[in-house]
């Protein structure tokens, strides 16, 4: 593990002092990690993987291997037997976890993956104009969920023609422009081979609130908030930073284990449940969800903003937040992605 850390740091041309600053720990600890005289904590391993661009699974395996060997010491015979028993128990637990995905959700995920395979065969029929039209619809619907009254045609005129719509507020105009630019940003991330970190999240939110509430754009909230129409109470402001740290730790540990649609839905639900921003949480959460979907080759899951769809969406979220049951929300997002794939395929023929 020590060689892995040193090699990755040198590859990025970082000094131990710079790595220490990024992790918020003493420089001497980094040197001890690299010399093997000190072992990082699990949380530090996660941060090191992100900062040094090391595959999280590779680093975790190396870290756990060293921990196991240290604990076994000279008790090789007993150690091997203990590892065999542990392997058996872990395989059983893994099987149990797989069963946690309901039959209904598994069925939709299988249908989604069949549609994606078909889409992969037709990628040559993609066109800029189709993508532009679908992204416009996404901006329109995502803003409509939050109460924006611009029509689809008016949204088009604001974004693509630079027109001002009479009778509509400046905020509604900025919401359309900002969301459109946020989609452009996540597409840039896709092209650059990004890793999803706090920096990307705050950049997305900064674009969403730019010019609307500039002092809070790209910043976590400092006051308590309530979600209109919901009985869920987001965490107190002093807990937000820690909750968000746990959010990214969860992402790093689960990003290669979960089906991409489930991962995207979970990131959406977890973010909007923390409600880390004073405003723009819904739009930001949906953009994060779609960033993950696009990263894995799926299409934008466009939740409609009409009354029925909005209520189904809110009710599924409420159940996840207040009853600790995410099944309805995961099913809802999976169904939206399936329908979005079907529509995309019908358009490109």
From TrEMBL:
Keywords noted in UniProt: ATP-binding, Nucleotide-binding
Annotated residues for binding of ATP: 279-286, 313-314
Signal peptide limits: none
The keyword DNA damage is annotated on this UniProt entry: no
InterPro entries reported for this sequence: Cro/C1-type_HTH, Fido, Fido-like_dom_sf, Fido_containing, Lambda_DNA-bd_dom_sf
Active-site residues (renumbered): 275
Xref: Pfam families: Fic (PF02661), HTH_3 (PF01381)
SMART domains attached to this UniProt entry: HTH_XRE
Domain of life of the native organism: Bacteria
GO terms assigned for molecular function: ATP binding; DNA binding
Site (Important for autoinhibition of adenylyltransferase activity): 146
Protein name, per record: Helix-turn-helix domain-containing protein
Species name: Flavobacterium piscinae
